[in-house]
Write a structure and sequence with these properties.
The relative contact order is 0.23. The two termini are 21 Å apart. This protein has 2 helices and 14 strands, in the order E-E-E-E-E-E-E-E-E-E-H-E-H-E-E-E. By secondary structure, it is mainly β.
Length: 184
């Protein structure tokens, strides 16, 4: 399976951890290796219909941020939109429209993130790498973007990631100029 992560300057960084297995000859059957060598956890996240994780708090968006876990999210069914905010990146705001063909999205430590499913819902397999300090009671507390650097990062123009013509594309859209620029 391909594992990729947002790389602000050059686009997508890939790690080939395993290859898709095409030997399955059964009609209407898809089989692929979803293993990630470095993973030491496994979470199935099911959105049954429209859902946001973590949910909004009244009018405020909320995000997760992990200090002891690197996520590797693979869509099993449906599609999931991920919003990533990281003020330390050159481009601190990314929106990824993730589907199964894209492989697993790596979300690094310290990155604020949330996911949104459409009406059909979605199922995601997360195979995280957790360090020895991982504590689920501390890692999954919804956070508001209440610091200046986080607010500025969220307000910056996002870089969009889509899957089109069997490729992951990095797209920048400036609504003021009404132009779409493909970056990768």
């Amino acid at each position: 399976m391909n594992v990729w992560h947002v790389h602000s300057k050059s686009g997508i960084a890939h790690d080939q951890t395993s290859q898709r297995i095409e030997q399955c000859k059964s009609p209407k059957v898809t089989f692929f290796d979803a293993g990630i060598d470095i993973s030491n956890g496994s979470d199935v996240v099911i959105h049954t219909g429209e859902a946001i994780s973590p949910p909004d708090d009244l009018k405020d968006e909320q995000y997760y941020v992990h200090n002891h876990q690197i996520d590797h999210n693979l869509v099993i069914t449906g599609e999931r939109k991920f919003v990533l905010i990281n003020p330390s990146w050159d481009e601190p705001h990314h929106v990824i429209y993730l589907n199964r063909s894209m492989g697993a999205l790596e979300i690094p430590i310290g990155t604020y993130h949330r996911s949104i499913s459409g009406k059909e819902g979605s199922i995601v397999l997360n195979q995280p790498k957790r360090d020895k300090f991982f504590d689920p009671a501390k890692e999954f507390i919804p956070q508001k973007l209440d610091k200046i650097n986080l607010i500025k990062a969220r307000q910056s123009p996002p870089v969009y990631w889509i899957y089109e013509n069997n490729k992951i594309k990095r797209v920048y859209f400036n609504p003021l100029e009404r132009k779409v620029k493909t970056l990768v």
